[in-house]
Amino acid sequence: MKNKVKKTLRYMVFLALMLMVCTNAWAVNNEQDYTKSTPKRGWYWYMGDGKKPQAQVAVAPSKSGYTAIQPSSGSDSEPYTAGSTEAIPIYDSEIEAVDYESLGGGIDTTGENTVFAETAVKSTTYDSPFGVFGVFDASGYRDFIKDMIFEGYFDVPEDYYPWAGNHMQNLGAKWSRQNTLLVWEGVQPNPYGEYIWNDADRTINKAYEHGGDDFNLILAISPKRLNPITENRLDWLNEDEPDLKEPFKNFVKAAVERYRNKVKYWQAGPEEFPKTWSNPGLRGTNDGYIRFLEWMNEAVKDVDGDAKIVLAPLIVSYQPDKPLKESLEKIEEIIKGAAAEDLLFDAIDVHYWDFAENYKMPGIEEIRTILDNNGYENVKIFSLEHGTHVNQPIVPDRIVPYQSEKNQSISLIKRYSYNLANGVSLINWNNLVEWKDFSGKDSDGPFDNMGLISDGDGGGEPPTNLGIPRLSYYTYKKMTETLEGSDWDNIETIREGDDDIYIYKFTKKDLPYKQIWVAWDDTPDYTQSGYGEITITGIGHNEVKITEAVADYETGRDVPYFKTWSVITAPSSGDTREVTIELGENPLFIEENYPPRRR
To answer: How far is 204 from 137, CA to CA, in rounded Å?
Structure first.
């Protein structure tokens, strides 16, 4: 018996050894030779032996040749020092081009090896103001996905999700919003029948699988259901106690129960005011919306007491068909109605787009006053759809100006800086990659030309731009890397509009005393020497790092690099220092070099 056991054990050891040998041989024979792969759009590089990348390093052309942050191992050169403002040359190892698809989309999601970038500080959950709208519902990007497959960038449609997630993480965006997944009649065709969660399950699960750490998704719930008698979809809410009240509340409870471990923010309607709620085919009333808000609130809180409620979106715009006065009057009626019923909500959503030069959201001060006057002092203001177009969109009966990628990028950093300093807590850019034919076949309107990444279609853009990040993409990334982790409740306005100059001071919460100023000059003419000269005071360090917020390129086709330089500060009053800078239209980040001197 003992001999049989020994023979069996020897045989098992033999099999295990053979398996290890075969596995290693297969791995060696099948190891990808990265040096032979064809570069795709977006250049990403590595340093190594031609087999496996030791570090994924993005490389940008500079005036003195290619520069990159060195990996901390696998190279004889010195590693990158945090806070350094000097370009670090590549000293050793041949640089080989890498197919970015072989590296999971070519995005360094850690941020540790990104050119001219400090790793963004992780924000406390729900604290970050940086988001991108509608990223993970692939049904909105069918044409883009087909084109990416045709060009060989995707193998299957499902490749869109990790691609989008990699870009979200690379951008440092922590939020997204979906507004079409939970339309009641779509999820539950029979109000007393079964739920169909397929689309919502796929999008929500993929969002949290690929969205990265501290990712948050806001889900809108719509009560739309066809009334076969009136052929409207919201008039069932106009009765005090409609038959559909309990079925609707059960639908909301089922949705919150299903996704409560992921989603904490629920929006009462996708985009309702000033006109949509009452449009023909819907025929909702103010009283009907208040009932909807009340029943949704009760159902959500019954399942998840920690969940947050966001009021339905309000559009504020310079567009002639949506005047600001009408929008403000409508939202004031809704807020007063909610207050009369003692209904609680945590945020209000204000959608805003318009031209690049119109970066200041109108009506925010008035909305804040309406909220405060009705007992909602702690309610936050979000802008969950926000942006400006690029190229030359077409709008019937309206002149829409051409806007370059640089126009869009400059507007982006001004929109975030100004509006966050003036009462807005969260901004979602429209979109990661733009829609196609948003307003109908061959419409080619502003929303077909607004993404941070080009779809290679419309607005006069060449198909070769498919999948290429625009300048605004890199500005967004630089913004999050620089400002994330700030004390968002205490952004200080140093100067706002005096001589067309704007200066805002951000203070890092998790890097004590580190101060960052964002500054620009809105004066149309920047040719006069010395024009827009400012002096920043109260600096707590003997050196500042200054970076242009928009890369020194006309488009994002080339991997941009940002002009960055160090300036030695001069002694000022007390224990602080100052620096004098000349501003232009391109906003500047002016940072105390970390670690700052404690005061």
So the answer is: 8
CATH number of 130-485: 3.20.20.80
Neighbouring CB atoms inside 10 A of 221's CB total 26
Token representation of residue 575: 């224990």
- Name every residue whose Cβ is closer than 8 Å to that of residue 554 and which is 6 or more positions away in sequence: 404, 405, 406, 471
d(CA 353, CA 386): 5
Output the CA angle 247-253-257, nearest 5 degrees: 145
Six token digits for residue 136: 């993970």
Is the whole-model pTM more than 0.90? no
Instruction: Say whether pLDDT at 287 is over 90.
Output: yes
Higher local confidence (pLDDT), 413 or 13: 413
d(CA 552, CA 572): 32
Residue 568 has pLDDT above 70, yes or no: yes
pLDDT tops 60 at residue 561: yes
Which of 231-235, 315-319, 350-354, 407-411 is predicted with the least confidence, judged by mean pLDDT? 315-319
Q: CATH code for 492-592? A: 2.60.120
Higher-confidence position of 526 and 335:
335
Give the pLDDT of residue 201.
97
Amino acid, single-letter form, for residue 385: E
For the chain, domain boundaries = 1-30, 32-119, 130-485, 492-592
DSSP 171-234: HT--EEEEEEEEEHHHH-SSTTS----HHHHHHHHHHHHHS-TT-EEEEEEE-----TTT--SS
3-state SS, residue 515:
strand
CB 210 within 8 A of CB 162: yes
